[in-house]
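Researcher: Next entry in the queue.
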Amino acid sequence: MRSGRLARPARGELALAALLLLAVGAGAFGSHVLHGGFYWDDWENAASSRYPPAEGFALGGLELSLFAYRPVHALGLWVPHEIFGPSPTLHLALGLFMAVLASAALYLLLRTFRVEWLPAAAIAVLVLIFPWSDSGRLWATASINNLAIALYLLGTVIALRGLELDGREARRHTACALALYVLSVLTYEVTAAPALLSLFLYATRVPWRLALRRWRLDVAVVLGALAVVAASTTRVLLTPLGQLEHALKIADQSLTLLASAGAPFGSPPRGAVIGAMLVVVACAVLALHLGRLEEATRATLRRWLVLAGASAVAVLAGYAAFVPGEPEYVPLSPGAGNRVNVFAAIGFTGLVVSLTVLGATLAVALVGRRRVWSTGLTAAVTLAIAVGYLSRLEDDKADWERSAALQEDVLGAVAASSSRVSAGTTIYTFGEDLYAAPGVPVFAVIHDLNGAVKLTLRDGTLSAFPTHPDGHFVCGTSSLRPVDPIGERTRPASYGEALFVDVAGRRSAAIATRAQCKRQSARFAAAGREALLARR
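Model: Structure for this entry, 536 residues:
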């Protein structure tokens, strides 16, 4: 059913919405911008910009393997490091800006479809502070994913407006929308499925025949962009059975996440929350068919039932790109892993606000109050939900900022041993926490401590790796080789070029012989395990 021409929000309204989102973003994430740090890929990106590797990079720190399948993503990581250098504050501020931009674009899209300004603002704000995707605001590298969302949403608005135009203006809007879709998918392919569903949005504006004609262009360019991604990606696809199992796991965890998003205080039973949501939907449908409601109330119920359905589809579309790949990409992944929810967050918050409006409308109609009471009740419930989100966000921020503090301890211990370091030295650290909280890394992979030490000691020839508490070293005749129990995390080093650093004890030992390797690896490993046990 088509509802007239699209709305065109006034520039003043959009400016106020942007200022509101900036204020919310600054209030929610400002302390992290100031006190957060680099994590995981941030360190590698920063070090590669300053000390470009001899192979696999171009124009300084532009990673060619990433550029081959996500070129916009690669540029979005490289350019800020070239401009800002190794300053976490500036990178986190840029990441927050991109998140605000995505929420502002969402507000514009909702208002274009004539969603009232208050619930549209509520959805945009809740997406910005959604704690189950907050790695995209707390971790600089993940924040580039918000750019993909913003490009897709802006492309959709332009595409919809182009359907109301003719001639050159229509072609100009279409070309701009297609370009934004391509740029979005080449930033992060999570937006491909939503872009391919644009047909249903177009059909709300023009007849299906015209919508299909316009949609064919979307299919061509989006599938072309996906082909670029698929041709060079390093992701390994699951078997068909594995993909089915992964999809079922995503669906199951999505229900748990929806329950948490609707009742963000404590741990209410999933069944009770989902059941209450279904009751609200059922009552709204029954009221439309059986009740004697004012036409304005009936229109509100119809509009928000449609938006609830669209939000549910957005959740599914947001996970489509993850189903074929790594099984650890699931909605309840903690810490850095919650970036999997970057697009689905729009659907979850849309569902929560839609159900809130439906419940408030029904409650006010039941007691015979004026419609203004419905607006007040919606605002009150949404505010309570926002408070719950902010409470969870504070806990997450504390984990990420604790990681930054623990990183400083590790780098301080390395710096204290700098007199033993010469060009080409490989440093192995012992006794540090690999994670500050589940999914929140300190130095946990092969490239994070490596990049951090290069920058801290200002020497691109150095290498540095964390030692797993249960790892050990194989001391060969001319070199030592670390063995990690959960996969490759470190690399070997020749004798005379290896240095062990005890983080807690602030001591170090240069390893020049096989005998030193055997003796010191046992000693440092034991001291590291004792330090970890003492902190737990």
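Model: The chain has three domains: 1-233, 237-368, 402-535.
Researcher: Noted, moving on.
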